[in-house]
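hey so u asked for the seq, here:
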Amino acid sequence: MTPQEFAERHPILYHMAEQGSWESIREHGLLSTTALLDLFELAGPEREAIESAHRPASVQISHPRYGVAVVRDQKPMSETKLRSCLIGMEPRQWYELLNRRVFFWPTSERLIRLLNARAYRNSPHVVIEVETSILLEQRLNQTTLSPINSGSTVYSPVPRGRETFQSLSDYPQDWWRARRLGEVAVDFGIPNIADVATSVEEWEGSSKLRTVWRR
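ran it, structure tokens below
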């Protein structure tokens, strides 16, 4: 599938972020956990606990220049189940691989499913909508696709490893035919997110509360 065909099938991608985070994201970019930790100059055991291990709860970090940011939790992940389905990797490597990426849902249905998950349904969140065609024009070589929700092992966990993430050109044809697309990931981050985003909205569960920003 070409980038144009993919953008026609999925014209908008959706990213869920912490409430109140848009102004910082707009200024510094939509950053992966690794990129955010680089920006905030975190190192040592504190960084390792965030980047290389399971996060059962969100973690607040601070910087004298950049203020406060929240690294979101990994509640849908069970390390015991993760160990049972990983191929050729240790959990630490999987966490580091995920933390290098910014994730998007390819459909609004998948977004709403996460917003309504038990852990998140009673809290407001920011939803950033991104124009797929512009994203691929700018970040095609950094974009990969996954047939699964790579950050969840809540139910019967399917096998996963480095081959879970494939470039658009390498994504298997049988996965396309079966419409197996769980998520879209961009390596490291999107520094010019305001040029790629179409709107930013605040949601709580299935309810849209307000529009925070629109291009």
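The mean pLDDT is 96. The domain at 3-214 is CATH 3.90.210 (Heat-Labile Enterotoxin; Chain A).
lmk if thats what u needed
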